[in-house]
Amino acid sequence: MYSTSIYGGKLDPYRSVRTAHGIKGNRQSIVVTNNPSKIDANQILTILFPNLGANDVIVPSTVRIAFNITLNGGEDDNCIVVNNLGRSVVKISVKLEGNEVLCLDDANIFLCYKDLWKTEKERMNAIYYGIQTVNIGKIRMGAGNTVAATQTNASIARAFGNRFAIPLDFEILTEHGAVLPGGAERQAVPRAYVQRLGSVITSSDSEATYQIRNISLEYDIVAHPDLGRLMCKQYMSSS
User: Fold this and answer.
1) Bridge-based pairing state of the strands 190-195 and 91-96
2) What confidence score (pLDDT) does residue 187 get?
3) What single string gives the DSSP state of each residue in 192-220?
4) What mean pLDDT comes out for the span 184-199?
5) Rounded to whole angstroms, what are the CA distances from 146 to 83, 90, 202?
6) At the topology level of CATH, where does 25-238 sit?
7) What is the DSSP letter of 33?
8) What backbone phi and psi angles, to 5 degrees, belong to 86?
């Protein structure tokens, strides 16, 4: 009970120093160039996480695959990519230590449907993933039938250009908080296979093609020895 004596609360024998219930650390944005760094249409993309430092913990919901996409519309000068390009994959497979923990066929249908429930603010912040107005999409891809846009939309389109991202928002990277550090005894490193078989292009030319370049893995980490030790203990106790 808090003391109300004339000597003040600081002399209360039951008083204790405030205890922090969280751990703070420096947050860093990491960009790792993938190998290979480019693929053509209908090829399978494999993403392998690099080993993390002993004190590095991945920030939930920050992992994504970023890339530049170039179009060859053939006779169609108005060729653009489909809306919500980051979800336009038909299969996602995630493996941990060689064991498949997630296999999602027709991911483009399921995940695009799920994104319909995003709030207006979430949609405004998802332009990197390809959720945008038709005209912003045209500006980003340099379509010939682009309509004059507002200064805000034009600035957004120029800022992102033809660079998009695929969010890797499966459960281990959104709910559980981290991939085990490289120093852990039982290392768990996701290999994410993103396979695209259908078209990602909206075009009147059936021969239109695309190429994906400058592929990189992007994520944020927090480096702190106590946090790394805590996450390792949690993973080891649940294994």
Assistant:
1) antiparallel
2) 46
3) EEEE--S--EE-S-TT-EEEEEEEEEEEE
4) 55
5) 16, 29, 14
6) Adenovirus Type 2 Hexon; domain 4 (2.70.9)
7) E
8) -60, -20
pLDDT at 184: 44
Predicted pLDDT at 215: 92
Cα separation of 71 and 94, whole Å? 28
CA separation (Å) from 75 to 59, 81, 127? Answer: 44, 16, 28
Residues 195, 83, 101, 38, CA torsion sign: positive
Instruction: Give yes or no for residue 164 having a pLDDT over 90.
Output: yes
Averaged pLDDT for residues 211-230 = 86
Element (H, E) at 229: helix 225-238
The domain ranges of the chain are 25-238
Token readout for 122 is 């979430």
What six digits make up the tokens of 67? 């890339």
Which stretch of 165-169, 214-218, 223-227 has the lowest confidence by average pLDDT?
Answer: 223-227
Specify the pairing of strand 64-72 against strand 163-167: antiparallel
